[in-house]
């Protein structure tokens, strides 16, 4: 090997070492988390024995909304297996809610035409969900029915007539 080729070889090797050193500085750790459950259930909304993913909150006047005279509406998430039989998890479950369009003052953001009205989403004890609290744990004693409540409420003083539309997705974690 002549001197020029040796020099080129040494420069190439040192460059390779430097590029590896630069790459070695860009490392990190990724953690992968999952779970294995003994079963999963199909979850559907239910209000007044009607299975649907739409919960009806009722019709109110502007004054009723402003004065807080709207009614909490009970609804359930019901668990069924693939044979449409009630599905009872082996242990407790955690249900978390995420608003589709965000949280507004006191509830799920309204995308309808009514102003200053939101949907207050609550657990069975009427404790509201929001940005700082979005989940609840149900013990196995609740079997296949998980109760919740929702209510139209005022989010300001400019309540106007119109439609109220809000949506939230839920995640069920079997514990």
TrEMBL record:
<dbReference type="GO" id="GO:0009289">
    <property type="term" value="C:pilus"/>
</dbReference>
<dbReference type="InterPro" id="IPR000259">
    <property type="entry name" value="Adhesion_dom_fimbrial"/>
</dbReference>
<keyword id="KW-0732">Signal</keyword>
<protein>
    <recommendedName>
        <fullName>Fimbrial-type adhesion domain-containing protein</fullName>
    </recommendedName>
</protein>
<feature type="signal peptide">
    <location>
        <begin position="1"/>
        <end position="24"/>
    </location>
</feature>
<dbReference type="GO" id="GO:0043709">
    <property type="term" value="P:cell adhesion involved in single-species biofilm formation"/>
</dbReference>
<keyword id="KW-0281">Fimbrium</keyword>
<comment type="similarity">
    <text>Belongs to the fimbrial protein family.</text>
</comment>
<dbReference type="InterPro" id="IPR036937">
    <property type="entry name" value="Adhesion_dom_fimbrial_sf"/>
</dbReference>
<dbReference type="Pfam" id="PF00419">
    <property type="entry name" value="Fimbrial"/>
</dbReference>
<feature type="domain" description="Fimbrial-type adhesion">
    <location>
        <begin position="31"/>
        <end position="175"/>
    </location>
</feature>
<dbReference type="InterPro" id="IPR008966">
    <property type="entry name" value="Adhesion_dom_sf"/>
</dbReference>
<dbReference type="InterPro" id="IPR050263">
    <property type="entry name" value="Bact_Fimbrial_Adh_Pro"/>
</dbReference>
């Amino acid at each position: 090997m002549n001197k020029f080729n040796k020099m080129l070889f040494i420069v190439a090797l040192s460059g390779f070492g430097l590029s590896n050193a630069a790459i070695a500085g860009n490392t990190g750790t990724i953690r992968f988390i999952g779970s294995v459950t003994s079963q999963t259930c199909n979850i559907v909304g239910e209000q007044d024995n009607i299975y649907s993913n739409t919960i009806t909150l009722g019709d109110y006047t502007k004054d009723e909304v402003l004065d807080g005279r709207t009614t909490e509406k009970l609804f359930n998430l019901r668990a069924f297996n693939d044979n449409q039989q009630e599905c009872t998890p082996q242990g407790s479950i955690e249900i978390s809610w995420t608003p589709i369009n965000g949280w507004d003052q006191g509830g799920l953001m309204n995308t309808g035409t009514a102003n200053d009205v939101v949907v207050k989403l609550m657990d069975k004890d009427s404790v509201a969900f929001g940005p700082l609290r979005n989940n609840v744990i149900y013990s196995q004693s609740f079997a296949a029915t998980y109760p919740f409540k929702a209510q139209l409420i005022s989010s300001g003083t400019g309540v106007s007539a119109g439609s109220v539309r809000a949506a939230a997705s839920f995640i069920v974690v079997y514990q």
